């Protein structure tokens, strides 16, 4: 599992998280402000992007409310890595 961090303005939080979810293979998203986690969103691996977006709609609304209160925050993303078998199946 790999971890990435992105620093964004509060007004860009929801759009950035939507973009990351659409990229796929996201396991967990954390919103961090001044070193403290504000929200931790676990995502289910293997569920389609459309389903995750629909299920995450209330969470995205909460993120929008939190983002309105902060000027800058960090988005921490945990990605799952494809196994060699999965990579081979995708190339076929």
Give a brief outline of the structure.
With 92 residues, the chain is α+β, with helices and mostly antiparallel strands.
Can you tell me about this structure?
- With 92 residues, the protein is an alpha+beta fold.
- The protein has one domain (2-80).
- The protein is 42% helix and 34% strand.
- It contains 4 helices and 4 strands.
- The chain has helices spanning 13-23, 49-55, 57-69, 84-91; strands at 2-9, 26-33, 36-42, 72-79.
- The chain has a 4-stranded antiparallel beta sheet, covered by helices on one side.
- Strand 2 and strand 3 form a beta hairpin.
- Residues 83-87 have low confidence and may be disordered.
Number of strands: 4
Alpha plus pi helix count: 4
| SSE ordering | EHEEHHEH
Radius of gyration: 14 Å
The global form is globular
Give the oligomer, counting copies of the same chain as homo and different chains as hetero: single chain
Strand line-up of the largest beta sheet? 1-4-2-3
The residue-averaged pLDDT reads 75
- Total individual domains: 1
List keywords for this structure.
globular; alpha+beta; 4-stranded antiparallel sheet; 92 residues
Layout of helices and strands, plus pairs?
Layout: E1 2-9, H1 13-23, E2 26-33, E3 36-42, H2 49-55, H3 57-69, E4 72-79, H4 84-91
Antiparallel strand pairs: 1-4, 2-3, 2-4
């Amino acid at each position: 599992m790999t971890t990435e961090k992105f620093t964004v303005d509060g007004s860009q939080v929801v759009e950035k998280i939507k973009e990351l979810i659409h990229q796929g293979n996201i396991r967990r998203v954390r919103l961090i402000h001044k070193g403290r986690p504000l929200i931790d969103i676990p995502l289910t691996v293997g569920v389609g992007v459309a389903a995750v977006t629909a299920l995450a709609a209330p969470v995205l609304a909460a993120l929008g409310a939190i983002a309105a209160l902060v000027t800058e925050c960090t988005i921490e993303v945990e990605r799952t890595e494809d196994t060699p078998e999965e990579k081979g199946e995708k190339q076929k």
